[in-house]
Design a protein that fits this description.
Blueprint lengths: L8 H13 L6 H8 L3 H11 L10 H22 L1
Helix pairs in contact: 1-3, 2-3
Length: about 80
C-alpha cells in the first residue's frame, strides 16, 4: 500500500496553477524550487491533471467535490456581502 501524500490536494492544485500561470517562462525546476518540492513531483502532478492516470493522490471525484465546495463557498460569501 502506498503511503499517503504529505501534500494536500489544495497544495497540489495551487502548484499546478502556479506552473501553468508561468506560461512556459519558468521550468518545472524553477517553480518546484519556489515550492520546496521535487521537480519530478511537480511534473507528475501536472501530467496527472492533464488527464493521464494518477498513480496516487486525490481522485477525480475528490477534485470535483472540492471544486463544487469552492463554488458554493464563493456563492455564500457573495450572498453575505449583499
Amino acid at each position: 500500500m502506498a503511503r499517503p501524500s504529505k501534500y494536500s490536494a489544495e497544495f497540489r492544485s495551487d502548484a499546478i496553477a502556479l506552473w501553468r500561470a508561468s506560461a512556459g517562462r519558468r521550468t518545472f525546476k524553477d517553480v518546484a524550487a519556489d515550492l520546496n518540492v521535487n521537480p519530478e513531483t511537480l511534473r507528475t502532478w501536472v501530467r496527472d491533471a492533464d488527464g493521464r492516470p494518477a498513480s496516487a493522490g486525490a481522485s477525480q471525484d475528490t477534485e470535483a467535490e472540492l471544486a463544487r465546495l469552492r463554488a458554493e463557498n464563493a456563492r455564500l460569501a457573495k450572498a453575505e456581502k449583499e
